[in-house]
């Protein structure tokens, strides 16, 4: 599996990018969000997800790891293929998808072409726990955010709230407001619990 491809952008459109590296040009399918983050010239790194089918090897590229993580989570939902996941990521940012899943916002997904009520509900149900876990693992690389999470959680548990519920609420708060202090996280969580 490829992690990323870094090279010179030869051709770019909202649907794909061609990156040349080592004398080889790679055609990489991208979302509109990734397209907006690419620069016209110079070296660019694209994080890769490879789909191997009987008739083709297809590369999907992302400007950020978070977007690739959401793409892979979307692929885990029954009925969502790579192209549908790319359409979702072209319509909503990674943060908007995470928030929609955590808040159970079916309408956010229904507003995307080709996503009906049942598929939107399935996305939310299948990803609710996975998105919360993804937020936690990404924040392990940010010790100060992890400390805030732990302190807020211990404060809420000390106040008598159930640990699992408090973790989910804190996760959704920190996704929306990553710069909150412990006090601000606890205050918001008290309103939501």
Architecture blueprint of SSEs:
Blueprint: E1 4-12, E2 16-21, E3 24-30, H1 32-37, E4 43-52, E5 57-62, H2 65-75, H3 82-91, H4 94-103, H5 106-110, H6 117-139, H7 143-158, H8 163-176, H9 182-192
Parallel strand pairs: 3-5
Antiparallel strand pairs: 1-2, 1-4, 2-3, 4-5
Helix pairs in contact: 2-3, 2-6, 4-6, 4-8, 7-8, 7-9, 8-9
Concise account of the structure shown:
This protein is an alpha+beta fold. It contains nine helices and five strands; from the N terminus they run βββαββαααααααα.
Report on the structure:
This protein is α+β, with helices and mostly antiparallel strands and 193 residues long. It has three domains: 4-62, Nucleic acid-binding proteins (OB fold (Dihydrolipoamide Acetyltransferase, E2P), Beta Barrel), CATH 2.40.50.140; 65-129, Orthogonal Bundle (DNA polymerase, domain 1), CATH 1.10.150; 143-192, Orthogonal Bundle (Helicase, Ruva Protein, domain 3), CATH 1.10.8.10. The chain is built from nine helices and five strands, in the order βββαββαααααααα. A five-stranded mixed barrel has the order 1-2-3-5-4.
Tally of helical segments? 9
CATH topology of the largest domain: DNA polymerase, domain 1
Task: Output mean pLDDT.
Answer: 84
Number of folding domains? 3
What would you say the CATH architecture of the largest domain is? Orthogonal Bundle
User: What portion of residues belong to β-strands?
Assistant: 15-25%
Structural class: alpha+beta
Q: Give me the side-by-side strand order of the main sheet.
A: 1-2-3-5-4
CATH homologous superfamily placement of the largest domain: 5' to 3' exonuclease, C-terminal subdomain
Just give the CATH class of the largest domain: Mainly Alpha
Unreliable runs, pLDDT <50, ≥5 residues? 134-145
Distance between the termini: 42 Å
**Quaternary class:** single chain
Rounded radius of gyration (Å): 19 Å
State the shape.
Answer: elongated
For the biggest sheet, the summary is: 5 strands, mixed, barrel
Task: Please trace the helix and strand order, writing H or E for each element.
Answer: EEEHEEHHHHHHHH
* Portion in helices: 40-55%
Total beta strands:
5
